[in-house]
Design a protein that fits this description.
Distance between the termini: 71 Å
Number of strands: 8
Radius of gyration: 24 Å
Helix content: 40-55%
Number of domains: 2
Bound molecules: iron/sulfur cluster
CATH topology of the largest domain: Endonuclease III, domain 1
CATH superfamily of the largest domain: Hypothetical protein, domain 2
Structural class: alpha+beta
């Protein structure tokens, strides 16, 4: 075990990437980076982390922030429940713990959205606790190192817990994950330059490509969403806010409804308008045709947004009482840019803006 620790830490000391969260192990910054890194690559997280810690440099600043601003800064990073949970965690930590992030994995796991991985990562990196942290990259390295076909999460935690270096647990965990991201990659791992080649059982047995066994692909259902890009006579667009809990909770969107069986997508978009305004007069500004369609894949489902342009006179106040939306707002282009939108909705907004700018199919 000592040899594995030494080899990995030596490699890490020479090859680690200069990521923005690595030079400062302030617990709040470590927590933010680890939550952002759940399901997301380090290269993508970098700029989001910089913006976030500039705007919310402390856990107190985050606790005091408005949720709309929190979601806005997370906009585009996906898995928005992470942002809502991080915000709630900040409020809990400030309310009950004087703004101090708990320093044990056990206490961290009590906080919203913090599971085994994040608790182990924060406890080891920020507080030097000898805790394992097994993400997808570490899982792959461990499965190959010990030649395991389909290790369970608890087996992996046990293995990693036995390996983690007492004197540098945070660095060891990061080194294991970094090795998986850069050397022990899913395809074409660079075994020739790997610091763990000597003890690696899969390498010795020629089973590297089989470890860990690939999980069978499950097919993801696709749902079409008839989406209404409603503009007023002053060219402001109507955006609605999704319910707090659930998919894209609290995010803003062009109103849309799932297309029913045997329903045309434009009819679902028109249904969304009726839910908001009843039988109001609308006209199409996309000649009854589709403005665009955008696909967005979540972990368990895919949305196909099929967007149509509608114009409504003036800016009537929508009635949300029988809808799932919790708020609605007529927005100028500038105001819209400030709202928290998912990547798909942001893309739709850009397409609508481009149509307006070039004049093609533009609202008059
Ligand atoms: Fe992965 Fe190859 Fe290193 Fe084994 S020797 S840990 S398979 S890169």
């Amino acid at each position: 075990m000592k040899k594995i620790q030494r080899a990995l830490l030596d490699w890490y000391d020479q090859h680690r990437r200069p990521l923005p969260w690595r030079d400062n192990t302030d617990p709040y910054r470590v927590l933010v980076s680890e939550v952002m890194l759940q399901q997301t690559r380090a290269e993508t997280v970098g700029p989001y982390f910089e913006r976030w810690t500039t705007r919310f440099p402390t856990v107190e600043a985050l606790a005091e922030a408005d949720q709309e601003e929190v979601l806005g800064l997370w906009s585009g990073l996906g898995y928005y429940s992470r942002a809502r949970n991080l915000h709630r965690t900040a409020m809990i930590v400030c309310d009950r713990n004087g703004g101090r992030i708990p320093d044990t994995a056990e206490a961290l796991r009590e906080l919203p959205g913090i599971g085994e991985y994040t608790a182990g990562a924060v406890a080891s990196i920020a507080f030097g606790r000898c805790e394992p942290a097994v993400d997808g990259n570490a899982r792959r390295v461990l499965a190959r190192l010990f030649d395991l076909e389909a290790p369970t999460p608890s087996e992996l935690r046990q293995l990693a817990g036995g390996l983690v270096a007492n004197d540098r647990p945070g660095d060891f965990n990061q080194a294991l994950m970094e090795l998986g991201a850069r050397v022990c990659r899913p395809r074409s791992p660079e075994c020739q330059s790997c610091p763990l080649q000597a003890p690696c059982l899969s390498h010795a047995r020629g089973t590297v490509d089989l470890r860990p066994a690939r999980r069978p692909r499950t097919s993801i259902p696709t749902y079409a969403i008839g989406t209404a890009v409603i503009v007023s006579t002053t060219d402001r667009a109507l955006l609605t806010r999704r319910p707090e809990n659930g998919l894209l909770g609290g995010m803003w969107e062009y109103p849309g409804l799932q297309v029913d069986q045997d329903e045309e997508p434009i009819a679902a978009a028109a249904r969304a308008i009726r839910e908001l305004f009843g039988d109001i007069a609308v006209e199409s500004w996309s000649d009854g045709g589709e403005l665009t369609e955008i696909t967005h894949t979540f972990s368990h489902r895919r949305h196909l947004y099929r967007a149509f342009g509608f114009r409504i006179s003036d800016e009537p106040v929508p009635d949300l009482s029988s809808t799932d939306w919790t708020d609605a707002r007529w927005c100028s282009a500038d105001a819209l840019a400030e709202l928290p939108l998912s990547a798909a909705q942001r893309k739709l907004a850009q397409i609508v803006a481009a149509i307006e700018t070039t004049g093609a199919e533009a609202p008059c």
